[in-house]
Amino acid sequence: MLNIEIRRPRNEDMDELYEFFQIMVKDTYTKEGIGDKLEDLENEILVKKIYLMDDLTTQGEKRFFLLAIYKDKIIGSIAYGPANEIIVGCLHKSTSEVLELGTVFVHPDYQYQGIGNLLLASMFQTMNKKGIKEFWLDSGYKGAQKIWQKKFGEPEIFLKDYWEKDAHHMIWKVTVPDA
């Protein structure tokens, strides 16, 4: 196993993280066969940047990131914060009532080596320390959906043909395991 450091983002990570988000979102869109949706892609990258700024400007109070670092390079990320509009809309609650886990990325060169599991376990530890008992997780990406179904079972909410025919959106309610 690689010697991975899990840590919080720093201001000096911003440029590298922005580049990391671009690589990850473009890779995801390409693998999902939606690489032609340039406006959506740019918007998703912008949202990730905003989430990161929320973390850095509030010292993790509004949104909380963890990074996976290997040889001084960012190779993974995970975050939690207020739930997105899709989750909130399905639950009929406000964003302040519901947390979501998201921005779970592992660089393509390092996937399938346990880094995502390491990030998730580290986030569970953080959530336990902060008294967070549950979160929501959603995905419209078929590849990610398979991973989350294997890890968390069938979704709590299944939005059939949400994005287009045969492009569903899934939402899981996850109880944080005790440390």
Automatic annotation (TrEMBL):
The keyword ATP-binding does not apply. Keywords: Transferase. SUPFAM superfamilies: Acyl-CoA N-acyltransferases (Nat) (SSF55729). Residues 4-177 form the N-acetyltransferase domain. The keyword Zinc does not apply. It comes from the Bacteria. Pfam families: Acetyltransf_1. One of its GO terms (molecular function) is acyltransferase activity, transferring groups other than amino-acyl groups. InterPro entries: Acyl_CoA_acyltransferase, GNAT_dom. This is GNAT family N-acetyltransferase. The lineage of its organism: Bacteria, Bacillati, Bacillota, Bacilli, Bacillales.
